[in-house]
């Protein structure tokens, strides 16, 4: 089961429709089961059934999650792969001791891959939709996989399959989620008839 | 949170209103009345009927006129949202955007400038699920404009029911149209919905159609009890 974590300011907000549901649809189309959980309720999840975690994005003004670092302490001890998207990448970086800095970007941007060794980010260049008020300053435990003129756009933990993307792959780059799942979660796929 | 909905009267803004009313406090609808038929952002047939829809829903409507000229209409939208902040105390807006990055990004930037929240609850919704849900939940939607092949004149004023959706699915597979009309293939008008207190009845309408391009213009309509 893929755990989708909603980082919006309260459970079942309108932001869930916009930032979690599209990811759930991609996960479903890839043949995986998923469950949603609000970031404040992560302790209630039966983690032994979780094969990977996706931390989903939030609306531009929805930044409450970064005031609640105690809700993300589990990240550094996660036994399963993690993909953080938008606010999810910001939460990852904070959990590992990094910082955020003001950097507001809205709309399409060109992103350049800077590593050809990663199985997900092997393209040299692509365009993507970004919607953020902060960029990240990750600790050195993360390697940079991609960047735009304005900021770091994708990172990976140097030892574990923990990824962050600042842009929103659900808009034009669903391959990010597809490759994350196919590379790091390769079992318990739902038969296509379901 | 007090929200205003960018409201055209078509299925997407009406369904977005429905979703928003279930989760937040919707305090007004906001309609931009464009003078330009080719507006990138706001033109839709029968936009003048949003006042009847607002009455049917039971929400106040803020109407704001725009030239519909690219860039100028964005400034008009900013003025309209500022007015909604002043008159209704909105803290954010809701749109019915489905896929258009062009529209979504521009509205996000305006909201950011005005320190408003921006929600797009239908963003990248599964088209088939969405269209079926509209029918299943009892939304009464008519086609108010067609703008591409293979839509003939008979589609104008037609209700989107199970048979119409079957044909739309067929056209989507055969001609590559978007099922939701997001590609500009068609425009819609909602006359009734589960959350409407009253419904709209069309009294007089006329169709203008040529070469797969047509509009269903409603000259007279009224709000009646359900």
Short description:
Chain A has 194 residues and is an alpha/beta fold. Chain A has helices spanning 14-19, 21-29, 87-95, 169-172, 175-184, and strands at 2-6, 34-38, 52-55, 82-85, 99-113, 125-137, 142-147, 152-157, 162-165.
Secondary structure blueprint with pairings:
The complex is a heterodimer of chains A (194) and B (226).
Chain A: E1 2-6, H1 14-19, H2 21-29, E2 34-38, E3 52-55, E4 82-85, H3 87-95, E5 99-113, E6 125-137, E7 142-147, E8 152-157, E9 162-165, H4 169-172, H5 175-184
Parallel strand pairs in A: 1-2, 1-3, 3-4, 4-9
Antiparallel strand pairs in A: 5-6, 5-7, 7-8, 8-9
Chain B: E1 2-6, H1 11-23, E2 25-34, H2 50-57, E3 61-66, H3 72-88, E4 92-94, H4 101-113, E5 117-119, H5 127-136, E6 140-146, H6 162-175, E7 186-192, E8 198-210, E9 213-225
Parallel strand pairs in B: 1-2, 1-4, 2-3, 4-5
Antiparallel strand pairs in B: 6-7, 6-9, 8-9
Helix pairs in contact in B: 3-4
CATH topology of chain A: Rossmann fold
Low confidence ranges of chain A: none
Query: In CATH terms, what is the architecture of chain A?
Result: 3-Layer(aba) Sandwich
Unreliable runs of chain B, pLDDT <50, ≥5 residues? none
Count of domains of chain B? 2
Largest interchain contact: A-B, 23 and 24 residues
Any idea how many domains of chain A?
A: 1
* Topology order of chain A in helix (H) and strand (E) letters: EHHEEEHEEEEEHH
Total strand segments of chain A: 9
């Amino acid at each position: 089961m893929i755990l989708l974590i909603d980082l919006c300011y309260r459970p079942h907000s309108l932001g869930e429709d916009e930032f979690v549901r599209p990811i759930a649809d991609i996960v479903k189309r890839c043949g995986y089961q998923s469950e949603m959980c609000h970031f404040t309720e992560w302790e209630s999840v039966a983690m032994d059934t979780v094969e990977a975690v996706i931390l989903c994005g939030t609306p531009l003004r929805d930044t409450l999650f970064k005031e609640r670092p105690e809700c993300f302490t589990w990240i550094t001890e996660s036994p399963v792969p993690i993909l953080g998207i938008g606010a999810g990448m910001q939460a990852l970086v904070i959990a590992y001791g990094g910082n955020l800095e003001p950097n507001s970007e809205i709309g399409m941007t060109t992103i350049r891959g800077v590593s050809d060794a990663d199985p997900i980010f092997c393209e040299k260049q692509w365009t993507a939709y970004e919607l953020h008020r902060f960029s990240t300053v990750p600790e050195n435990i993360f390697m940079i996989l991609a960047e735009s003129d304005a900021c770091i756009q994708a990172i990976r933990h140097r030892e574990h399959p923990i990824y962050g993307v600042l842009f929103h792959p659900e808009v034009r780059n669903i391959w990010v989620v597809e490759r994350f799942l196919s590379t790091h979660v390769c079992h318990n796929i739902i038969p296509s008839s379901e | 949170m007090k929200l205003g909905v960018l409201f055209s009267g078509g299925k997407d803004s009406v369904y977005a209103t429905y979703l928003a009313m279930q989760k937040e406090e919707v305090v007004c609808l906001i309609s931009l009345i464009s003078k330009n038929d080719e507006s990138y952002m706001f033109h839709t047939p029968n936009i003048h009927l949003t006042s009847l829809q607002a009455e049917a829903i039971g929400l106040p409507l803020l109407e704001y006129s725009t030239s519909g000229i690219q860039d100028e209409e964005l400034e008009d939208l900013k003025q309209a949202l500022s007015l909604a902040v002043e008159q209704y105390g909105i803290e954010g807006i809701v749109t019915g955007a489905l896929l258009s990055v062009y529209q979504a990004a521009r509205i996000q930037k305006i909201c950011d400038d005005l320190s408003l929240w921006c929600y797009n609850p239908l963003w990248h919704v599964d088209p088939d699920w969405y269209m079926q849900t509209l029918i299943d939940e009892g939304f009464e939607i008519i086609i108010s404009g067609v703008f591409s092949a293979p839509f003939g004149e008979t589609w104008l004023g037609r209700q989107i029911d199970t048979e119409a959706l079957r044909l739309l699915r067929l056209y989507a597979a055969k001609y590559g149209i978007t099922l939701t009309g997001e590609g500009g293939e068609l425009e819609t008008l909602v006359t009734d919905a589960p959350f409407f207190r009253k419904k709209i009845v069309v009294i007089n309408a006329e169709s203008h159609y040529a070469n797969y391009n047509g509009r269903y213009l409603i000259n007279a309509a009224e709000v009646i009890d359900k």
